[in-house]
Amino acid sequence: MRTEQMKAFKKPFNEKTNGNDPKFSMGSYTWGTPSPNYLRQLSWSEAYHVSLSDILGSGGLCTLRSTMEQFAAKVSELAQKLAEILVEKLGQNYSTFFKETCLQSTCFIRMNRYPTCPISNQMFGLMPHTDSDFLTILHQDHIGGLQLVKDGKWIAVKPNQQALIINIGDLFHVWSNNVYKSVHHRVAANKLQERFSTAYFLCPSYDTVIQSCVEPSAYRKFSFREYRQQVQNDVKCFGYKVGLARFLL
Ligand SMILES: O=C(O)CCC(=O)C(=O)O
Ligand SMILES: [Fe+2]
Asked: A single GO molecular function, which one (predicted)?
């Protein structure tokens, strides 16, 4: 998977941006941040953010897409299992909720590349954020740079290529009514070495209503579509994601 990912990023810029190669939907390839207001809001990275509905059943014609499909099949099984365990630990009986709402076709894979950055002390590889999903399964290479907030402090996640990193996302945060915390994370820019990572986002269909599994809920109900829209609008207007604060009751 990583080899195919590296090949995809090696393509000339105009091939990546015109959306024809490697045949993902228009807009899957992104670089930087959509509308930064100042330098520190510009992520020093490029990514393919791919809806699995684009690649499922693509057959063997494109090596990247069929590799992604195989990767997704394995990782989605793991994501489902983890979600089930997390629900069970909450004492909730929603054993089929994730199987029914987070189909493979509604999930996403994001391939990230962080090029070397000559002004690494002024930039992030990826701006601080939380993920807008139920949970994320992340694989990073040996370079390091991922950091997360623990007890109010930014700490580095030691790179380990033999391990997967599991992040709770905003939707589980709401669903568990603040029991599982959506983790703030970011990637430091690196002056000397490029870095790659691959993320699988467990997402529901856009119509799914997100609400806490217990009452009284700290958040108002919203659809996943509404949440994505709000996040996109905020990023466009302010240069950053406001996130769950918008939905607090
Ligand atoms: O590259 C990483 O380690 C983090 C990637 C990430 O947070 C994301 O794609 O949402
Ligand atoms: Fe993330």
From this structure: oxidoreductase activity
